[in-house]
């Protein structure tokens, strides 16, 4: 006698996949079949021991139990294993000449306040003063007037306003700008600092055990949108930041790194109400037209 | 310029694996490298969308948050995906002529009470009366006297004593026996019933969405041990049980299924203080000598 559903080491993944009933949606079946196949292949490849399996179960349990209203440890785990960036990349492949996307991150949790072009979004005074300029265009260089440029960043100590509600001014280092008739935007801020992701939970232990630091290199977040175009969620990275080669969440893309030039010119500084020297960076953003984005390659 | 640590879709898993530092233990590195490689391959294979990634994060989070002192939802998840049985199988491959191992399960949480051979472990009266006989031997048929036979099972309603502490007698359907000088054991009990694993959490939703029932076929648990031999943790399955072809945790092995014969003989029944007809099953257990077990095949 041979029973169809019985487990065997050789056919282990197939047996599990075969257990999915007729009512299983086709996409769920596709996802779970691939997941189970890879999961079983992993267990066999490393010949996972009982004890290692138990450590894995305990780790996943602790990760789930670390989640609360203000912390999502499974997203952190996905981030530090490169899964978040991979999913982001697969789903938002940029056309050759458009600005690359990168992860949204967990700090776009409040609406950025409307600001006039040129406004200073650094309300807490610390850090190196910095002028940000740029232009939003379509793929052929068409300037996009009235595009929205949503910006948020950490302060000179590496914290977002929402992490320090008692210390930082309300909506510090956030702004929603609209480009002028020539597609240009500009604003004043400070150079952001690198910062660690929360590393006092299970993911922190994983980083420590694998000899990794918990830091993200210095960056400003941007969401740029214009009618008739695909919006882009991206970062502008500071080219002399620490950790640019080892972003803990693998969010850095070469095309998003810019030099923050030191400008030692008291006159120009005075016009900006800056001290001299200050820093300046230029970041052009190219959007693709709606429907133009690549959906899949590979 | 090209930065070594930067993420790319093509090299995504390599980039993550390369981030592990020198301090990473060699076994941890081996496990995580394989895990990350399979995880990234899975994401690419199914082209996981942002929304599907979020559903996955939410599912894992809910699974972690369902765990408490008396429930381990991640073990359940591992069980229903066949991972627990796979790990068990890999780590406890039986030699050709020895009894196969299967999963321990979550209900061996209290010590079984010492019982005399022949004792009736069914203290709650329900169910079909059943005589269990068997013999513990070494690989060449050598009878093993004084071997311990630890037995536990569900009652006729499909519940273990620890699940119904207010209803079932203390240590109902549990017993620790010692084989006689001829290696034999025997005891009286009832035929166990199939039962569902807890299906009111995230794992239950997964089963429902994949058209699977939550049941395990009827079985008795055994841990058999003798000095100088490898102990075996296994089940004895009831051959006419429902769900034998579709155990939700994939624990059934062909070699562990036995007929529970109906005996319609008032005289033999009377000697056992049973009603007639009753059921009888024979289950021989063969242990391998210490050090004899296969550690790996693949």
From TrEMBL, chains A, B:
What keywords are assigned to this protein? Dioxygenase, Iron, Metal-binding, Oxidoreductase
Tell me the InterPro entries matching this sequence. 1_2-HQD/HQD, Catechol_dOase_N, Intradiol_dOase_C, Intradiol_dOase_core, Intradiol_RC_Dioxygenase
Domain (Intradiol ring-cleavage dioxygenases) spans 132-160
**SUPFAM superfamilies assigned:** Aromatic compound dioxygenase
Q: Which CDD domains is this protein grouped with?
A: 1_2-HQD
**Record's family?**
Belongs to the intradiol ring-cleavage dioxygenase family.
The name under which this protein is listed is Catechol 1,2-dioxygenase
Whose protein is this, by species?
Rhodococcus koreensis
């Amino acid at each position: 006698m041979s029973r169809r559903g019985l487990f065997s080491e050789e056919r282990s993944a197939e047996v599990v996949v075969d257990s999915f009933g007729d009512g299983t949606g086709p996409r769920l079946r596709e996802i779970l079949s691939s997941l189970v196949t890879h999961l079983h292949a992993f267990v066999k490849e490393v010949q996972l021991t009982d004890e290692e399996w138990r450590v894995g179960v305990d780790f996943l349990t602790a990760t789930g139990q670390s989640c609360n209203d203000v912390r999502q440890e499974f997203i952190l785990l996905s981030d530090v294993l490169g899964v978040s960036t991979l999913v982001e990349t697969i789903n938002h492949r940029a056309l050759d000449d458009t600005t690359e996307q990168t992860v949204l991150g967990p700090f776009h949790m409040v609406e950025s306040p409307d600001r006039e072009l040129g406004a200073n979004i650094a309300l807490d005074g610390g850090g190196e003063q910095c002028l940000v300029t740029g232009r939003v265009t379509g793929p052929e260089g068409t300037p996009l007037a009235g595009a929205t440029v949503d910006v948020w960043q950490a302060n000179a100590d590496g914290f977002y306003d929402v992490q320090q509600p008692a210390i930082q001014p309300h909506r510090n280092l956030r702004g929603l700008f609209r480009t002028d008739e020539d597609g240009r935007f500009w604003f004043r801020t400070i150079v952001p600092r690198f910062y660690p992701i929360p590393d006092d939970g299970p993911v922190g232990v994983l980083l420590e055990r694998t000899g990794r630091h918990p830091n993200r290199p210095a960056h400003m977040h941007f969401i740029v949108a214009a009618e008739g175009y695909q919006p882009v969620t991206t970062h502008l990275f500071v080219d002399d930041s620490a950790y640019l080669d080892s972003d803990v969440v693998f969010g850095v893309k070469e095309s998003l790194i810019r030099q923050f030039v030191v400008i030692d010119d008291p006159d120009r500084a005075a016009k900006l109400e800056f001290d001299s020297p200050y820093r300046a960076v230029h970041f052009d953003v190219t959007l693709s037209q709606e429907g133009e984005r690549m959906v899949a390659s590979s």
